[in-house]
Specification:
The protein is of the alpha/beta class. The chain is 30% helix and 25% strand. The strands form 6 sheets. Strands 12, 13, 14, 15, 16, 17, 18, 19, 20 and 21 form a 10-stranded mixed sheet that branches. Strands 4-3-5-6-7 form a 5-stranded parallel sheet, sandwiched between helices. A hairpin with a 2-residue loop joins strand 1 and strand 2. Helix 2 packs across helix 3 and helix 10 crosses helix 11.
């Protein structure tokens, strides 16, 4: 198998003149970009960094971030990308846990970085315009003289260490080897039917597995990566039209924003032929609206994680709304019964057809990680008998297709019944006056938990109307929301995942 450095060189050798990356006024071919990547690789060598070392980036989705990512692959150095919004204590935890040797930051992240203890112990390179002082080293200085890159990495080297969001505790480092990253990139190309010279919007952050996959897969097909440093729906639509973007791979929230923009119309996105989504379920109403607005040739529901990139793929998402499909090219999955005793025990009982259970995935797959970084406690909880326990709930239908119903931790237990929020959300999303909806379980003296629907309305609607709507649907009565809360916004993570814990804690603003 080729390592990732040779994968990039393959693209350069195949067509050095093809456009590789666009970021504002920056436009570079594969041949031009390679010289910048080689310059950063040379800088690593000059700083004494060696194969297996780790460097930190706290950057938005910009040209510099993508360049550093590829330079790390060339050098056999692991990149540790963090959210550019990371606070100083988060930076310190991740930097110390990963034992990083060098950092790259930009203006928007510099303040928090300088408040961290990490800033006192490692060198930093600034990805921004040079200031009046010569105190720092600047990225632009490093690439003034181009250098031919050389592939010094190996397939067993750690390519990237992604830190999970840590919503229930300290974030966990997910080290992914170059061979797993390449396998995931190739599978992504195949499963999304990418052609040579595709053009995509590089908007999913490079500290998230979807962002990394976009970057790698585009290189595999000599495509063009159109960098969008931070999400701005109107700038994204402008970029799609200007650069003739051919496919999109986004979380549902960003698609929702696009359709809601007054600047969106089908003629501006007519070059987009393929849509893909991941990161969260897409409710029926949004799915249908996107299909009508884009008329895509392919609409892929991709279900996976940082730990094992692909679990399942559904290449015709509209035909079977909510369906995550069947196991991907490199995956095997099962659904095991819930509540089978100790978490240290490997469950042996599989859930029946249409029975909700926990989704698990075979760690022998080519895209899988091998365990968390310095977190044996997390390994013990999530890895058993060679299988990764996703923490997601779901079921297989009669056709053997997987439906993901939520998180084990999000399961609502009301009156002794297990209730998944996703089914309720899908039904309510179809009401014409509901813009967004999230369902959570709130404490109730009688039921234990009661089903509460949090609604961001797009028209005039009240609880009585929505309750009647649910009564007239296929929703079983005990799953019907007992309360409706109208909010100004549904709280979400930086990559668009609904933060139910904030709803449960009352951390929202009523409409």
């Amino acid at each position: 198998m080729l390592d990732l450095g040779r994968t990039f060189l393959q693209a350069v050798e195949r067509d050095p003149g093809s456009l590789a990356i666009v970021d504002g006024n920056k436009r570079y071919t594969y041949g031009e970009w390679a010289l910048h990547i080689g310059a950063i690789q040379q800088f690593f060598n000059d700083k004494g960094l060696r194969n297996g070392d780790r460097i930190l980036t706290i950057l938005q989705n910009r040209y510099e971030a993508a360049t550093i990512h590829w330079a790390c692959q060339m050098a056999g150095i692991a990149i540790v990308p963090l959210n550019w919004r990371s606070k100083s204590d988060e930076i310190d935890y991740c930097a110390q846990n990963a034992d990083v040797k060098l950092a790259f930051v930009e203006e928007v992240s510099l303040g928090n970085y300088l408040q961290s203890e990490t800033s006192k112990s490692i060198s930093v390179i600034l990805c921004m315009e040079k200031g009046p002082t010569d105190e720092y080293t600047y990225f632009d200085e490093l690439i003034q003289v181009g250098v031919e890159p050389t592939a010094q990495g190996h397939v067993e080297d750690i390519s990237v260490m992604l830190f999970t969001s840590g919503t229930t505790g300290k974030p966990k480092g997910v080290p992914r080897k170059q061979r797993a990253e390449r396998a995931a990139g190739i599978a992504h190309v195949a499963q999304n039917q990418y052609a040579m010279a595709e053009v995509t919007l590089g908007v999913m952050p490079l500290y998230h597995t979807m962002g990394v996959r976009t970057l790698l897969s585009l290189c595999i097909v000599n495509g063009t990566y159109v960098a969008v440093p931070r999400w701005d729906v109107d700038k994204a639509i402008d970029a799609i039209e200007r650069e003739a973007v051919t496919h999109l791979y986004l979380v549902p929230t960003l698609y929702h924003d696009m359709l809601q923009s007054k600047n969106f119309n089908a003629s501006r996105v007519k070059t987009v032929k393929k849509l893909g989504f991941a990161g969260a379920p897409m409710h029926d109403a949004l799915l249908l609206s996107l299909s009508e607005a884009f008329s895509p040739e392919l609409f892929v529901n991709h279900y996976g994680s940082s730990e094992i990139y692909t679990y399942t793929i559904n290449q015709n998402a509209v035909a079977k709304p909510g369906c995550a499909g069947k196991a991907g090219i490199n995956a095997r999955i099962k659904v095991v019964k819930l509540d089978q005793g100790s978490i240290q025990t490997m469950p042996t009982q599989l859930a029946s057809c249409n029975e909700e259970g926990q989704i698990i995935c075979d760690l022998s797959g080519d895209e899988a990680f091998e365990g968390y970084w310095k977190r044996p406690d997390a390994d013990q909880k999530s890895i058993r008998g060679g299988w990764y326990f996703t923490g997601d709930t779901g079921y297989f239908d009669e056709s053997g297709d997987l439906f993901v119903t939520g998180r084990v931790d999000d399961m609502i237990i009301s009156g002794g019944e297990n209730i998944s929020p996703v089914e309720i959300e899908s039904i309510l999303s179809l009401h014409p006056s509901v813009s967004e909806v999230a369902v959570a379980g709130l404490k109730d003296d009688r039921l234990g938990q009661k089903v509460v629907a949090f609604i961001r309305a797009s028209g005039i609607v009240d609880s009585i109307v929505l309750d009647e709507y649910c009564r007239g649907s296929d929703l079983i009565n005990f799953k019907r929301p007992r309360e409706y809360v109208f909010v100004k916004e549904i709280p979400k993570s930086p990559v668009g995942k609904v933060l139910r814990r904030m709803l449960i804690a009352g951390e929202y603003e009523r409409a």
